[in-house]
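Record minuted for completeness.

…
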Amino acid sequence: MRASTRWTLAGLVVIVALVVALWREIGAEDPVGGTGGGLTASASREHRDADTPEALAGPRAEADLPPCPAPSTAPGPPELAGVSVECAADGGRADVGALVAGRNVVLNLWAYWCGPCADELPAMAEYQRRMGPAVTVLTVHQDENETAALLRLAELGVKLPTLQDGRRLVAAALKVPNVMPATVVLRSDGTVAKILPRAFTSADEIAAAVNPAMGVRG
């Protein structure tokens, strides 16, 4: 075999090895399989490995969030049946369908890195203060960095019950468009009244958009 032929074969072997390595790397990033449509590794976790109970203790104390609503046996939205996430206040498990059952609920979907979300959250807190027990505002953090979410809420001074949902299970169950912030309005009879993929800047805006759908005044 001539030297030029040997060099050609050696080059082909290197190219094949590089292609195989690249294929394996791409496959490893898509744990669901398929052609890139599955969850990425970061989106498949509720929170980061670094967000241990010990690591979250300080941020939780700083955020000082109220507990998540007590579960109810009233009929809840069938879309949320069996959806279980974490309550950010204490790390306990939360059955979302049971938490919202029998209540007029405003679900606010957000992430710590979202600028419009940071502008909207204080308006949601003010809206909750005005409405009192007639409506429950429940925020849903949609990123795996739970520490950053708690610190953001502490920074904003927003104290609303919050679910940690890094896998975005709530949004998927309710078919919420992939935008943030987004608001879902749930009636006390367990029906979905509205899905609002938009940002609000004031409590007045929120009330005008959601109260008629729930049949409440305020």
User: Anything to note?
Assistant: DSSP finds seven helices and seven strands in the chain. Residues 3-42 have pLDDT under 50 and may be disordered.
